[in-house]
Specification:
Blueprint: H1 2-30, H2 52-64, H3 68-91, H4 98-104, H5 112-115, H6 124-137, H7 146-158, H8 169-178, H9 184-206, H10 213-223, H11 243-254, H12 259-279, E1 281-283, H13 294-303, H14 305-310, H15 314-334, E2 338-340, H16 351-359, E3 362-363, E4 373-374, H17 377-388
Antiparallel strand pairs: 1-2, 3-4
């Protein structure tokens, strides 16, 4: 029975990956001002936030003469395919029961970019791919060298999207969980070294939050063939926004009726199974026995609060946090960092119905809305319209 369930999960992951790749391919063809233009930001106008992937792609295009849009599509598609492959390998070690199914198929889990199409092809994949890579492979690296890999991924992610810096505590958490049997003194020494490197990256980001209009023109000149309306209502046009201006824009969105309360409600609905799993667990280390692992869930989410203050894509931010914590928790369970109190392992005869209703019928808008999205609303409306006509 379990083997069949794993097969079903693999099919869903494969289908999800395919849909996301197709969606992003459409965004590339349309020269999307959001999903596509973000990948074209480069350093041709000087150092700028978000510019690292675009500069790498631009240099590949410059030296190979391969179409830039094709390079972008191939790399982003590869990132999603690699993530999907790693996820299938990772989940095959998870004991499947109703609770774990609900956690795996939460609306904020890996299916989110399908249910909320506009999230497909965003730079979030760089961070989530980094998380699953750390979870699966960090412990295979010699302990003294792990810090260099973490610093490298921190650099890659934060220079891809400066907002990812608020998620860096997740890297520290993975390091601690995978090395929890090593002495605290050794772990602290490595974390101190990583912290210094992260502090340097933080100041680099802070002092390079925006560029001038001339630099934007230089970037647009370098990619104009592949983004004809470059600098017009796209991500490249936002590169001269100050932090103060971004906060003012987000504040206007907060003023929508029930906006904050809606996303708080959405957060708890989508996170409830994972929250329950954390509360039903305990730390294997007796020194922490008086604490409940839910404190990790709370602290990580508190660390991400700054990005909600300067950005408006609340659904995306919750998706990144949720997916990361899900992977980290399951890994912590497998290497005995967490211990799970006994729970019922029944499969409920309505298992598939429950999972479908919870994970595949509704989702959370990625931005700027205060209502849940019913996934099948548009197709049902079209069918009704056809019947009426």
């Amino acid at each position: 029975m379990q083997t069949n369930y794993y097969k079903y999960i693999n099919y869903i992951i494969a289908a999800t990956t395919l849909i996301i790749v197709v969606n992003f391919g459409q965004f590339v063809i349309e020269k999307s001002s959001v999903q596509y233009s973000d990948w074209l930001i480069n350093y041709q106008g000087g150092f700028v936030r978000r510019g690292l992937p675009g500069e790498i792609f631009y240099q590949l295009h410059y030296f190979t003469k391969i179409q830039l849009d094709f390079i972008v599509f191939i790399f982003v598609a590869f990132f999603y395919i690699l993530f999907g492959y790693f996820l299938t390998k990772f989940l095959k070690n998870i004991k499947l029961n109703l609770l774990n199914f609900l956690i795996i198929f939460s609306p904020l889990s890996f299916i989110y970019p399908v249910m909320e199409q506009k999230v497909s092809g965003r730079k979030d994949i760089i961070f989530t791919l980094s998380i699953i890579t750390l979870v699966m492979f960090l412990e295979k690296i010699k302990f003294e060298n792990q810090k260099y890999f973490i610093i490298l991924l921190t650099l890659l992610t934060t220079f891809s999207h400066s907002g990812f810096f608020v998620y860096v505590p997740l890297f520290f958490l993975i390091f601690i969980i995978l090395n929890h049997q090593i002495s605290f003194k050794k772990i602290f020494k490595e974390i101190f070294f990583i912290s210094i490197a992260c502090l340097v990256l933080f100041f680099i980001i802070i002092f390079n939050t925006s560029i001038n209009s001339d630099s934007i023109i230089d970037i647009c000149n370098s990619v104009n063939k592949y983004l004809p309306n470059c600098g017009v209502s796209d991500y490249i046009s936002t590169l001269n926004w100050s932090l103060k201006y971004e906060i003012e824009l987000v504040t206007k969105i907060w003023n929508k009726e029930n906006y904050i309360s809606f996303y708080i409600l959405a957060f708890f609905l989508a996170n409830t199974p994972l929250i329950y799993l954390f509360t039903k667990s305990e730390f294997s280390n007796k020194n922490y026995s008086k604490f409940n692992p839910i404190i990790i869930f709370i602290l990580i989410n508190l660390c991400t609060i700054p990005i909600y203050y300067i950005g408006a894509d609340y659904g995306r931010y919750m998706h990144i946090t949720y997916l990361s914590l899900m992977l980290i928790y399951f890994k912590g369970l497998s290497n005995k960092f967490f211990l799970l109190r006994k729970t019922k392992k029944n499969y409920n005869k309505f298992l598939f119905v429950i999972i479908f209703l919870y994970g595949f019928t509704w989702t959370i808008p990625h931005c700027c809305n205060n209502n849940f999205k019913f996934i099948y609303q548009k197709p049902i409306s079209k069918i009704i319209d056809l019947n009426i006509n």
